[in-house]
Fold this protein.
Amino acid sequence: MTIRRWDELSNETLAHYKVFHVRKSRRRSPRTGAEIGFFLMDTPDWVNVLPLTDDGQVVMVRQYRHGSERISLEIPGGLIDAHETDPAAAAARELREETGFEAQQITPLGVMNPNPSMMTNRCHAFLATGCRRIGDLQMDPGEDIEVVTVPLSDLDGLVARGAIDHAIVLATLSFWRAHMSRSSL
């Protein structure tokens, strides 16, 4: 069977918030002809940054996440602001704001669909190397962030124990591993 694109019949915005809006999209199945409603979330693209220091530390953040109702160990990341056209610049900004660190080099690792079943945005993953602390955090009013450094050698153990369980962080680590294996060829 050949999978084909579904025809879009209509769109209705159901809710519009600061960082996303929800819409109902009616689409027609090319296989059955059935008209089905789907709920979609439109949001700006995101960035995620894997920051490494010269002495082999990963710069990470701990923050409370309302969806999981728990404190999460993550790498820095966030929305690409409306005025930003360069995802790498947004990655450098998020790194600086959430950790107080700056990178000597920002390298793109890949682009992912956070949840293509219902979200329309993309997440750009970056490696930040030569990171050093240059100042204080610049948190948004809705953020409470603790910066922690973790030895790079501990990263796999944190993943294996479930201490790092944020899906987009795990995807960024996967991009990084693929990047490292390509670099060693």
